[in-house]
Amino acid sequence: MADRYDGTLEDVFDLQDKITTAIIGILEPNIQRAEVERARRKRPDNLDAYDLFLRAVPHFASVMPEDSKVGMVFLERALALDPQYAPAHAYMAWGLEMRVTRGIAGETDLAEAVRHARAALAHGGDDAATLAAASLILMILGRDSDAALAGSARAISVNGSCAAAFFAGAQIQAYIGDAARAEDYARQALRLSRATP
């Protein structure tokens, strides 16, 4: 992704959507491959919750709140079956984040997104993509740089080949003002996303 994005401050939300769409196009196939690989390594405690999670995932691909809301219904059911299912918590946090950042949700959804992100970190174990997503949401919505940095570092240490971990780490580093590390992590994310067939 060597594209250049120019625009005015007034176009910042359009620019954010363009960048998000481009990044999702790169990362989404890798996240799915990582999820398949993780499933091979360790079976989830509740296969029904896992099935519901897999049914939710496609509804997040468009990165649109309306679509993710459909997926969140599956995630709520998955979490009712397995309250400690970290990937479901991470995707719930992401779906709520979409609503909050686009201004169609309020403080209650913001608090719920942060709660789900913290649960994903608490139960994420060795799932780098889950840890990365939760960390980024804690930075964006929770403004908790300490937890976000710790979660991001944990995601990278768990799987140093996870493009999503470096992608989230790049954004977190940018939020805290470490441009050099943000650029390094972004380069790592791009290199890793291209390296995966």
Question: How would you describe this structure to a colleague?
Answer:
- It is built from nine helices and no strands.
- With 197 residues, it is mainly α.
- Helix 2 (47-56) runs antiparallel to helix 3, helix 3 packs antiparallel against helix 4 and helix 5 packs antiparallel against helix 6.
- The longest helix is centred in the first third of the chain and has 30 residues, at 12-41.
- The radius of gyration is 16 Å and the shape is globular.
- The two termini are 16 Å apart.
- The relative contact order is 0.10.
Summarize the helix and strand pattern as letters: HHHHHHHHH
| Relative strand content | under 5%
The DSSP helix count reads 9
What is the averaged pLDDT score?
A: 85
Q: Cα distance, first to last residue?
A: 16 Å
Structural class: mainly alpha
- Helix percent reads over 70%
The number of strands is 0
Unreliable spans are none
The coarse silhouette is: globular
Largest sheet: none
Rg calc: 16 Å
List keywords for this structure.
mainly alpha, 9 helices
Task: Describe the secondary structure blueprint for this structure.
Blueprint: H1 12-41, H2 47-56, H3 65-81, H4 86-101, H5 107-123, H6 128-140, H7 145-158, H8 163-176, H9 179-195
Concise synopsis of the structure shown:
The protein has helices at 12-41, 47-56, 65-81, 86-101, 107-123, 128-140, 145-158, 163-176, 179-195.
